[in-house]
What does this fold into?
Amino acid sequence: MPDERSLVSRAKQNEKDAMEELFRRNYPVLLGALVRIIGDANVAEDIAQEAVLSAIVNLERYQPRAKFSTWLISIALNNYRNKLRTKTREVSIDSIGRTDSEAESAEDRALQRLAVDEATGLLESLSPEKRQVFVLKHYYGFKYEEIADVVGCPIGTVRSRLHDSVNILKREITRRGLI
It folds into this structure.
């Protein structure tokens, strides 16, 4: 299985198989991050597809100082921010997490839905900027430098937003009596 750098190199030379493999590997990470950050699976899918198209067109601009998925997510978030600027309404979080069909029984599905609803509510208590940073760090394990690249802010701001996010979530968990 070729590593990411060789796939990128081959994709830049217009090798279709390499390009398909590169995006096949990274699309689930991209879409998962967007669903958690945006909250609406349909909007996330649209933004992800636009990001893939932008990445294909601009593949020559990719510099491998960060993971390819980091670059894809930054393209997607820039596209999303641009869409938000053109709209006057905020996008609300409707759903997050895995589908109910993954649960084995009706009880499991009900418990899973409660957990997803609770997680959604907790994440909604964060501002979009803090939610972005929190999801990239705690759901996807991005490094501070990668998060800073994706969201376009200094590392100190990333650390501050993460610290604030954790404190807000702790307060919210306590307020809701979840612990």
Q: What stands out?
A: The longest helix spans residues 16-38. Residues 1-95 form a domain with the Rna Polymerase Sigma Factor; Chain: A fold (CATH 1.10.1740.10).
